[in-house]
Amino acid sequence: MRRISRLTRVAVGVASLALAATACGGTSGESGDDGGDDKGLAIAYDVGGKGDQSFNDAAYAGLEQAKKEFGYQTADIEPTDGETDADKEQRLTSLAKQGYNPVIGVGFAYGPAMKAVAAKYPDTTFGIVDSVVEGKNVASLVFAENEASYLAGVVAAKATKSKTVGFVGGVDVPLIHKFQAGYEQGVKDTDPKIKVVSQYLTQTAEEGGFSSPDKGKAAAEGQIEKKADVVYAAAGLSGQGVIEAAAKAKIWAIGVDSDQYQQEALAAYKDSILTSALKDIDGAVFALAKSVEDGKPLTGTHTFDLKSDGVGLSDSNPKFAEVPGATEAVEKAKAGIVDGSIKVATE
């Protein structure tokens, strides 16, 4: 099995997905100023912010790559507690006014705000991760999370000894349902006798489902009490609590979005992180920045899936190779998804 490499990610974003490019904008230097104030990519974080070792940090990695390669000024802005769509709209507006291009909202919660702001700044390219927003100057960067989660489910089924595994979702919304659906299907297709215990932390993001490690830890502890010995979290920053609980109980955790085994802030728990379901968020962010830098901004909806290496599964932890049959089962499942013989549910 092969992890998604940084070079592959760039290729995915720019070539393998055959993303359509339209010339409906440009860099800040091309849209009216003299180019002396060279501002490039700006990202506005989702709840949890930078430091979640997962979703937001993957977007930041894409920003850092763009900053290094293009040598321009970048910006990354944190969310605020209890913020409204109006707050998000103000944040995106401020970045566009300052001349940043592109401006990316990290997370589906930016949908309403982006639709409003993009219409007011037609010469700026906007991007949104995990949602589809219609607009001539908007690129919607979405992922087949269910496919990566299916692979995670296959691994969980191979690793469990108790025949019970867990799923912790941050917020009860359609996006996270995709993670759950793929994971449960992967488990059941591998061994229908295995029980999957699932729980959502909150009904809304405002309640802290993506930003509360304590909630994640409590949920994981409850699942461990029910004999779960592998727990998969799709919960942003809250997932750190799930990983902590798994490490304390000496069971397996499965990370999400980024390769959490490699995250320095999680080093104390890394031996318990068996694998992570990956989303090439950094590759998508960089691809959009590159398209603007090249003068051919991407727009429309672009789906990063398993076939294009836009999602995948990490095998950084050497213990992954020691799980009997896991590597072979994942490769077989991956081949089935790519050739269409395995249809992964989204709900």
From TrEMBL:
The keyword Membrane applies. InterPro entries: BMP_lipoprotein (IPR050957), Peripla_BP_I (IPR028082), PnrA-like (IPR003760). Residues 1-20 form the signal peptide. It is found in: Cell membrane. PROSITE patterns: PROKAR_LIPOPROTEIN (PS51257). It comes from the Bacteria. Pfam families: Bmp. Keywords: Cell membrane, Lipoprotein, Membrane, Signal. The keyword Membrane applies. Residues 46-318 form the ABC transporter substrate-binding protein PnrA-like domain. It is a lipid-anchor. Its main location: membrane. Belongs to the BMP lipoprotein family. This is BMP family ABC transporter substrate-binding protein. It comes from Streptomyces hyderabadensis.
